Amino acid sequence: MAFLYLIAIAWVYVVLLMSLAESSLIAGIMTFIFYCVIPLGLVLYILSSPARKRQIKEREKAQIKERQQSTQQDDTTQTKSN
User: Fold this and answer.
1) Would you give the DSSP letter of residue 21?
2) 8-state DSSP, 48
3) Is the dihedral of CA 59, 62, 68, 73 positive or negative?
4) In this structure, are 30 and 3 located in the same domain?
5) CA separation, residue 53 to residues 3, 59, 62 (Å)
6) Apex CA 10: angle with CA 6 and CA 15, to 5°?
7) How far apart are CA 5 and CA 70, in angstroms?
8) Contact in structure between 18 and 31 (CB atoms under 8 Å)
9) Can you state the angle between helices 38-47 and 2-20, rounded to 10 degrees?
10) In this structure, are 10 and 39 located in the same domain?
């Protein structure tokens, strides 16, 4: 995943230099937005999808584990009180 961010940083650098070489400020801003911000955001979103899915599954597993532990604790307290 770190390699992905290295490539993204390099791409931002290249597009920033392209933007600085434009003839006007508006053209430079538009170049940066349309060559860097939009495509890079889309690519990073798509390529980080497996990591997001993994995090969601881990959160769900942790919640299930917490529920199982709480039900076990409830069962033990009920048996002790009887």
Assistant:
1) T
2) T
3) negative
4) yes
5) 19, 10, 14
6) 145
7) 40
8) yes
9) 170
10) yes
